[in-house]
## 1
Amino acid sequence: MDIFKALEEYDYEQLVFMQDKETGLKAVTCIHDTTLGPGLGGTRYWTYENEEDAVIDALRLAKGMTYKNAASGLPIGGAKTVILKDPENQINREALFRAFGRFVEGLNGRYITAADVGTGETEMDHVYQETNYVAGTGLKPGTSGNPSPSTAHGVYVGMKAAVKKAFGTDSLNGRTILLEGAGKVGLTVAKKALKEGARVIATDIFDGPQQRAKEIGCEIVEPDELFSIQADIYAPCALGASINDESLKKMEKAGIKVIAGAANNQLAENRHGDKLDEMGIVYAPDYILNAGGVIQVADEFNGGYNAERARKSVDNIYNQIEKVFNIADRDGIPTYLAADKLAEERIAAIRKTKSVYVRDGKSILNR
Ligand code: NAD
């Protein structure tokens, strides 16, 4: 892999390799862009086929965080860490994550970490023993806890904004929603939509989530039956790439007019976003819609988490989605590209202010 060429491609600022033989730590932190503030992004603890795959994942995820954080209006940049998990190697988890915490401390605030796939509150508690540049630890005063309810609330308000674009009113009353994935986020979105008078048809690959969805009032179908029902809204809340050639054909038949869900990377390829535009389906871009979790986590740095303030900020996802639609209309582009533009325009505007000299710049870290 030609590392500097890869860094140049999307103008990555910094790629940090961390190794500690004693604890078995092998980690890569990628800081993509800190124009808006310190780079914030979770730490993924994952087994990779090879080291190159780990680096590519760190690069891809860090850039994704820059766009998500920028488009959410947060004063933070984008970064991400992957720690290479060796299933053969017996590690001491506390030692490994404390060693990692010391490296994070060494970055002196350019990077703030949090939980991601394979890590949770316990790991962040270990990291917190060594650095304050961590969110989502249960030990820190002003911590914010599980981000899923905030993510779900953002998906719900963003869905309403998308429904308004498609139908002229943002009410979900009487709308039929096809919910894919009745997990932590999907189930909460369903509850909110049901409360507003929507009909929710839910599916999941496991019985437990199906059962829980049924208990709150959803109708249940098997995953391959989801699009056999005529509906207004498709809410992908399972895994990525669910908008693809095959599902688009089914959505057309099902009469879907809006796509709004929590899953990351919903478009299998960008051309599927173009296709949605041609089909006249209102697509609420995933990373704007599912930013509630990171908005909550970032609020911890405003002198400790404040639920009311964070909720207001999550409510703002409604406006952010409207901004995306306005950019799409203004420039005649699909909404997934308009989302990128929203992020890029904000970063460009703030970058210009950086030409004004200050000796020690202020950031979210010294509020
Ligand atoms: P979760 O694991 O609690 O729920 C996902 C559910 O989807 C599970 O019940 C799983 O069985 C189901 N599922 C998996 N494949 C499926 C398929 N093919 N068809 C139907 N159901 C399927 O996860 P979550 O926290 O609710 O997150 C949902 C999505 O939102 C994920 O893609 C996640 O990356 C994304 N997301 C979550 C958050 C958060 O705060 N939790 C934040 C941003 C993005």
## 2
Amino acid sequence: MESFNRFSDIDQYRRRIERAAAQINRSLTTVPEFLLILGSGLGSLANQVEDAVVLAYSAIDGFPQATSPGHEGELILGWWQDRQVAVMKGRFHVYEGHSTADLVLPIRVMQKLGVPGLVLTNAAGGMDSAFTPGDLMLIRDHIGLWADSPLKGLNLDEFGPRFPDQTTVYDREWGDLALSCARELGITLHEGIYAYCSGPQYETPAEIRLLRMLGATAVGMSTVQEAIVAAHGGMRTLAISCITNFAAGIQGKPLSHQDVLTVGAQTENKIVQLLSRIFARMPDLRE
Ligand code: HPA
């Protein structure tokens, strides 16, 4: 992994952030209120964006490239419920071989542009006996102990401190708003703890038993590094998992990426409704 232990490396990384931010800025009329990152099977949520300007990652100077099936690689700028938003259709994962620095570069770019919020979505395996595939879960906290920290190496002091607090990585009030919007819409939104595993292999049943003992309720291969960097840079984060499958060993059935994509796509309507209500109700994060 790249871990910037030389000043020259970190300066090069800073310049990548600046170049990408300057380029994206040319397509913006105002600063987006939040960056929305779409998880596996959820790419079509980007269709909600009005007056969209689409930038392929390959056309953004300094951006990494997405390789995972179900992740397309487009940054979409536009409006959702009259909110100026930036949407990442396609995220970066450690299992693709990306360094954690590359993985979180888009978040740093948004912080550089002054974007105050981050909305994370993902596909996850459900470990709580109350969860069934197709359910949604609000992430209240995470377990990322075996995730390589995206903050390793020289600190980017202009974004945040060397030893950042992680007491509230996920914004409490924004989460509460999500729960009340879900109640109004009659959508089940569980609350829980997301555990990170790097993948690309799914977990073994023994690993799932361990994670359950630790108090985790859902498991997935993303999100945690993004949320850590958002917290470091003072962004507010809302994160919602789509439970696409029972985690390994819970039903004895093998897991498949196709099922993850299919169930993700089936929940599209529900997530669109929920996010639209949240975006309509939330206070302006730029104030
Ligand atoms: N494990 C890890 N990642 C996942 C899963 C899972 O069961 N489902 C969707 N992403």
